[in-house]
Design goal:
221 residues; alpha/beta; 6 helices; globular
Length: 221
């Protein structure tokens, strides 16, 4: 079977406490419902959830969402260690892809949705990001920034598409609801682009625009 792995890498730092983290936690059941009840999508995708603050934790290992009753919740606290997030993401992908291949699956290049509301507080995160993007299973990264996130940093993290919350046009909580809806649409549409016989590539169907966000150009130097 052909498998498309998705990873949600979400900021859990203290600045996400209150409405922002509640918005994500309230949206995760909708994502789970949308995907787990669609056999065509659930069969072709796997989903994992990673939270990061002082360190990074795999809150939900890669799974077929139809085999899961619910997703774990995020909890805010601590600082914003991008390096830990990239390190754990790379380790997960290496293990997950190897395991899926060992089970006889064909694996498409993983896709990572990265979300942060702040600037990185750790030194050396750029080197960890470089190691991730130069790894053999480098994921396609879609990065979203809200709140105090820095546009240049978010665009540096992304290698496929990047979005920044529009100033004062929408609250962080409302922006995060739009983020979650866009993530769900991307998974459903991307999985639907995989042919029934699994031949050929897939189309990563990420929204060109997301309400409340401005699209960040990645090709400008």
């Amino acid at each position: 079977m052909q498998i498309l792995p998705f990873y949600l890498v979400c900021d859990e730092s203290g600045s996400m406490s209150g409405a922002p983290i509640e918005a994500i936690n309230n949206a995760l059941p909708d994502l789970h419902q949308e995907i787990s009840t669609n056999p065509t999508v659930a069969d072709k995708t796997r989903f994992a959830l990673i939270g990061f603050s002082d360190d990074a934790k795999v809150l939900q290992p890669l799974v077929d969402l139809s085999e899961l009753s619910d997703l774990p919740a995020l909890a805010a606290g601590g600082v914003t260690s991008y390096g830990q997030a990239f390190r754990v993401l790379q380790a997960c992908i290496e293990t997950d892809v190897t395991d899926l291949k060992a089970e006889g699956h064909e694996v498409y290049r993983p896709v990572a949705f990265f979300l942060s509301d702040g600037v990185p507080t750790d030194d050396g995160w750029e080197e960890t990001l470089r190691e991730l993007t130069e790894s053999r299973y480098c994921p396609k990264i879609i990065a979203f920034g809200i709140g105090e996130a820095d546009t240049a940093t978010i665009s540096r993290v992304a290698n496929f598409r990047a979005f920044m919350q529009q100033d004062s046009a929408i609250s962080p909580a409302a922006a995060l609801r739009e983020f979650a809806a866009s993530l769900t649409r991307s998974i459903v549409r991307s999985a639907s682009s995989i042919s029934a016989d699994g031949r050929g590539d897939f189309t990563l169907a990420v929204d060109d625009t997301v309400p409340g966000f401005q699209t960040v150009a990645l090709d400008k130097l």
